[in-house]
Structures are given as C-alpha cells and as structure tokens.
C-alpha cells in the first residue's frame, strides 16, 4: 500500500461500481501516491474509468447497464477536509460537508429517469460534474481533461509564473472599469429619457409653483364663496332673528324679563323652587347673548360681488390643477416637487457622468498597466514552461515533440488580461504546434498530459489524476521514463493509472488487478488488491513471461525492488 513520505493528496478514497457494463460489483480503496490498475486485455480496466467519468458529468448511456439488471450505480467517496474551496461550494449548494467527506453517486436506470446524489441529497448532473471535475482530472478521454480548456491553461500558466496576485488585480480592475462604464451608460439613458421630458417637467413644476397653493386653501375658499353667494339671505335671516329675539319692543328677551318677578316670588315662598330661578336667569342671559351675537353677525356679513368673482377664479385655477395633477392640493404640490427633483437630477447628471467617465479612464489606464505586468510575467514563464515540457517529451517516447504556449492578443484587456492563452504541441517534425485537443492518439495525449503534470506538479490544483491509455505504443526505456514521471507526479498528487506496463506497476504505492470470470452464465469483472506473491505474479505476467516460472518471478522481484528503492529515495 502507500509508502511513507508521499506528499500527494489521497482525496479519492473509494470508488464503487455496481452493474456497470461487465462489472457486477467492484470496490477500490485508493491511497495517496501512485495507484495502478492492471489486468488481462478485455478484463474491463477502462470500464472503471468510464464509470468514474459519469461522476465528472459525462452524458449517461443506459446501454452500459449490465445485462439482466435494471440499473447501474457508480459512487465515489472523496476526502475534502483539506479542500476549503470545495467545501465552500458544497455549502453554497446546500450540502453538509462539515465532517470533511463528499460522496457523489449516480444511478442509471435502464428505463426511467437517471438520478444523482451528493452526500445523500438529490442533486443535478451539472453540480456533481462541477465538484467531481474539481477533484479529478481524467486523461484518456478529452471531455474530462481540464488542461484541454483555455481557462484552465491560463490559470495554470499564471500559477506557474507566480502571477496570481497580478491576475487577481487585473480581474478586479476590469470589474471596476466595467461597473463604471455600465453606470455611465445607465446615467446617459436616464439623462436622454429625462431630456425628452424636460420641457414638460419644467412647465409642470413652474405651473404648480407659480400657483402658490396652500394646503386646505380650497376648502377655506369654498366656505367663503358659499357665504358671499348667499350674503343677502344670511343678512335677512340673521336680522329677523336679531329683532325677534333682542332688538324689537316686543322681543322675546323683553317678554321673558317681565316674568322675573313671578319667578322670584315663587322662590321666596318655596325655597325648593330656587333652582327654577337659577335656570330662568341662565336661559335669559343665553337669549340676550344670542341676540347680541346675531346683531354682530348681521353687521359682519359682506355683500362683495368682486370678492366672490376673485374667489371663484381662484377655485377654478385650483380645480384645473387638481384635474391635471392630483385630487387634492397636497397631491398637486407633491407632483410639483417630483417634477422639480427630476429636473435637478437632469441638471446634475452631466456632472456625475463627467466624473464617472474620468474615473473610468483612470481605471482603464490602471488596467492596461496591470495587464501589461501580467503579460510580461506570462511570457517569461511561458518560455520556461515550453523548455521544460519540450525537454520531457522525448523521454516519454515523443522524440520530435515540441510544446508551445500561444498568446492571442485581445483588442482590449479583458477580465483575464490582454491575451488569451492556449497550450499547443506537435509530435512530428515539420508540423506547427496545434491545440492539445487535436492529438488523435489517446496514449500520446496522456503522455503529453503527463509531461504537463510533471512540469506543473507544484501549481496544478486538481488533486487526483487518472491516466488511461498512457502506455499505448510504449516500451523499453520510454516505459521506465513514463514510470519515473508518474512517480514524480505522485509525490504531489494522487495518481490512478490503467496500465499494461510492468515498469509502471512496479513503481506503484498500491496495485490492483481487474479479473474477469463467469458467474451464472454471464461475464463478471471484479477488482482485487495485490500484495506479496500475488503482486510478483502479476508483474511477471505483465513482463510477458510465465507467471509461474522462477525466471519471470525473479525478474519481477528485481523490478519491484527497484521500484521500492526509487520510492524510498524520493521520499
């Protein structure tokens, strides 16, 4: 199993596969360092990789459900205790990862819907693909190789250059610059809209302001107009009441005054009737006060046709404004204030736009400077990376291999700098380097990826690397070099390799064998951990000899001992 001294993560702890293709049930417990899977041709080694790819978001195909079964299940257990960015993303998605474990599960139904889970909670293929691809980089099928994507290549180059802060600064300045431009555009749209309404707003505000309306003024004027329009009737009615109650010789007050002696005599005879005298005096005084006030009121009533005309004219103006701008004077005044406020915004927006444009120009200049610094760091690092990988390629059986970092200049700096980054490679003399995705051979692509992983071991953030077909067309000294490189990468990453090469198997920290058998008339594939004599026999088989012969076993032991010594030396 895993040897001491490995610094690489062991993020993928377990892979479980059930009823997938020819696999009835398989369970791999993986450790840190280099994990190797071997077995006879056709036993189903690459099927395990295909199963794992489902957890990286690959489209499901129900044809992989094992014959005679209703569903296939793939499940992986990841240790994310040292992956804070993954735990944060899980929490954003509502997943509980406080214990440091992430379990991704996907079930393919032969008929019906396929289902996916993360930590026991139903979720989406896109989410488990996002999480899985952040933890596992699968080499052998283009769809899952992070390094085939331009964004990943750019990030890795920046990390290789030690330019993480410069890249973050460019992104921050770009975001600030775009926000300023968006704000300017928004203000200009608002200003244009206001400008179209400016004449109307100005007329509206001035019309309301010039009217000098007062809250409640309409009610007061309506009351005064009603009095003026009925002034003759008011004078007549109040005069008649004044005379009858108070002013005439036979007024009600005079007649009541004549009854004072009778009330007094009544109270003198019967002291219990004193209250009548009190009520009499109160009533008499009240009638006297009413009479006097009616006289004053009669004298105060104006008969002023000119004033009535002025009031009616003022009310007409108020009613007109209320019909246009609101049911009450308060609403009309509020409309006037809003119109004036919009005009003030219009007048101030140009100054704000000018200030924002000045800030945007300054930020654009800072962005250009920061993007220039980032470009210089990238180009210096690109030369070093090109040299390192081009030097490694011949060791991995690609004698004419040449690696190149291509820069595509942008017209304007973007959020990620002044250029797009693309890794290119050629494996044949006389051909210009092209994108990595154009490499036709899965084995060659895997070895190019191995070269990249070797050079980028210290900056590549994906902790688990899976290589399939890496040994296609490889033998001899190249096989040893591939094994050496895999071992070096496994010092910093958890590596899982599907291989036929004994040189790679001998370097493994953990060795698994895929075995095919017959069960119930159907082919069945299982996976076993190899240790001791079983591992010696398997390496002897991979060497091409008779696993039972002493010569083949001695050669296998020598190879395993050499691999153990190299692992110990690296540790």
Annotate the secondary structure layout.
Elements: E1 12-20, E2 23-29, E3 34-39, H1 45-54, E4 71-79, H2 84-92, E5 101-109, E6 115-118, E7 121-122, H3 125-135, E8 136-139, H4 150-160, H5 164-211, H6 217-229, H7 231-247, H8 252-257, H9 260-269, H10 274-300, H11 305-325, H12 329-392, E9 402-414, E10 417-426, E11 434-435, H13 442-455, E12 464-467, H14 476-490, E13 494-498, H15 502-506, E14 510-519, E15 522-530, H16 532-542, H17 550-570
Parallel strand pairs: 3-13, 3-14, 8-12, 12-13
Antiparallel strand pairs: 1-2, 1-4, 4-5, 5-6, 6-7, 9-10, 10-11, 14-15
Helix pairs in contact: 5-12, 6-11, 7-10, 9-10, 11-12, 12-13, 13-14, 16-17
List its traits.
571 residues, alpha/beta, 2 domains, 6-stranded antiparallel beta sheet, 6-stranded mixed beta sheet, 17 helices
Write structural notes for this entry.
The structure is a single chain. The chain is of the alpha/beta class and 571 residues long. The protein has two domains: 12-141 and 433-570, Rossmann fold (3-Layer(aba) Sandwich); 194-345, no CATH class. The protein has helices spanning 45-54, 84-92, 125-135, 150-160, 164-211, 217-229, 231-247, 252-257, 260-269, 274-300, 305-325, 329-392, 442-455, 476-490, 502-506, 532-542, 550-570; strands at 12-20, 23-29, 34-39, 71-79, 101-109, 115-118, 121-122, 136-139, 402-414, 417-426, 434-435, 464-467, 494-498, 510-519, 522-530. The strands form three sheets. It has a six-stranded antiparallel β-sheet with strand order 2-1-4-5-6-7, covered by helices on one side. Strands 8-12-13-3-14-15 form a six-stranded mixed β-sheet. Strands 9-10-11 form a three-stranded antiparallel β-sheet. The model is unreliable at 1-5 (pLDDT under 50).
């Amino acid at each position: 199993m895993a040897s001491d001294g490995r610094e690489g993560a062991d993020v993928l702890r377990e892979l479980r596969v059930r009823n997938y293709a020819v696999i009835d049930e398989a369970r791999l417990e993986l450790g840190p360092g280099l994990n190797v899977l071997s077995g006879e041709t056709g036993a189903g080694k690459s099927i395990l990789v295909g199963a794992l790819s489902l957890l990286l978001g690959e489209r499901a195909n129900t044809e992989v459900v094992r014959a005679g079964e209703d569903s296939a299940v793939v499940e992986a257990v990841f240790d994310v205790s040292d992956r804070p960015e993954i735990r944060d993303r899980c929490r954003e998605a509502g997943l509980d990862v406080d214990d440091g474990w992430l379990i991704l599960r996907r079930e393919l139904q032969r008929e019906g819907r396929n289902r996916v889970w993360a930590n026991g909670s139903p979720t989406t293929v896109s989410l488990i693909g996002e999480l899985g691809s952040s933890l596992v980089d699968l080499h052998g099928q283009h769809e899952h190789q992070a390094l085939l994507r331009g964004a990943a290549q750019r990030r890795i180059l920046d990390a290789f250059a030690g330019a993480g802060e410069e890249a973050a600064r460019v992104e921050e300045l770009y975001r600030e610059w775009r926000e300023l431009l968006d704000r300017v555009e928004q203000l200009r749209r608002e200003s244009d809209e206001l400008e179209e309404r400016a004449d109307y707003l100005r007329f509206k505000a001035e019309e309301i302001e010039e009217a000098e309306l007062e809250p409640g003024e309409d009610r007061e004027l309506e009351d005064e107009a009603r009095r003026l329009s009925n002034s003759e009737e008011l004078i007549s009615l109040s005069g008649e009441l004044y005379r009858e109650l108070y002013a005439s010789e036979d007024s009600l007050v005079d007649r009541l005054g004549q009854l004072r002696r009778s009330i007094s005599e009544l109270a003198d005879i019967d002291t219990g009737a004193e209250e009548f005298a009190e009520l009499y005096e109160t009533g008499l005084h009240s009638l006297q006060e009413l009479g006097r006030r009616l006289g004053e009121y009669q004298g105060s009533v104006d008969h002023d046709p000119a004033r009535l005309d002025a009031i009616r004219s003022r009310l007409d103006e108020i009613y007109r404004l209320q019909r246009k701008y609101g049911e009450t004077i308060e609403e009309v005044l509020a409309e006037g204030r809003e119109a004036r406020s919009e005009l003030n915004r219009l007048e101030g927006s140009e100054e704000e736009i000018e200030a924002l444009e000045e800030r945007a120009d300054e930020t654009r200049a800072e962005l250009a400077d920061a993007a220039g610094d980032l470009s210089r760091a990238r180009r210096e690092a690109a030369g070093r990376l090109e040299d390192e990988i081009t030097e490694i390629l011949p060791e991995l059986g690609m004698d004419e291999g040449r690696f190149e970092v291509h820069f595509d200049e942008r017209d304007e700096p973007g959020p990620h700098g002044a250029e797009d980054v693309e890794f290119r490679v050629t494996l044949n003399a006389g051909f210009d380097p092209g994108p990595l995705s154009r490499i036709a051979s899965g084995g060659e692509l895997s070895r190019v990826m191995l070269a990249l992983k070797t050079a980028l071991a210290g900056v590549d953030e994906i902790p688990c690397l899976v290589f399939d077909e890496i040994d296609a067309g490889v033998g001899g000294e190249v096989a040893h070099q591939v094994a050496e490189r895999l071992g070096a990468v496994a010092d910093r990453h958890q590596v899982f390799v599907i291989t036929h090469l004994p040189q790679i198997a001998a370097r493994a920290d953990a060795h698994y064998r895929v075995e095919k058998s017959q069960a119930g008339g159907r082919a069945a594939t299982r996976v076993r951990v190899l240790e001791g004599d079983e591992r010696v026999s398997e390496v002897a088989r991979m060497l091409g000899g008779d696993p039972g012969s002493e010569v083949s076993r001695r050669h296998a032991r020598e190879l395993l001992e050499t691999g153990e010594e190299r692992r110990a030396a690296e540790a």
